[in-house]
Amino acid sequence: MHRSRVYAILIDTPEAEAADAAAFWSAALGARAERLPSEPQFTTLHDAIPGLVTAVQAVDDAPRVHLDIETDDVEAETARLIGLGATQVSQWQECRVLRVPGGHLVCVLPVESDKEVFEAQAKTWP
Length: 126
What we know:
- By secondary structure, the protein is α+β, with helices and mostly antiparallel strands.
- The chain is about 25% helix and about 45% strand.
- Strands 1, 2, 3, 4, 5, 6, 7, 8 and 9 form a 9-stranded mixed β-sheet that branches.
């Protein structure tokens, strides 16, 4: 048995356009933008979507939106989603990158949120 929940929505943007995209989304959503010094490819949009981390991510790829799913068992959640039709396309650190039916990307990562938030919001899977 394991638990998981949607943790974040990422607005993936080509690296050359990431600063402009962050400024746009910050203004459009009324959110304070903060670039993360420890992970400079991410610009967090504070309180843009209540209950979810929202960020612009500079990528070396096409623009898109993807979800991050946090879990207390990355292997089990990855297997569950593959069983539903996803395919694993890569791995970045502990994160598994999956392509789901319809072509969208989903990242499965270890729990990032506060323990209380995860405990209150995560779904339990057999």
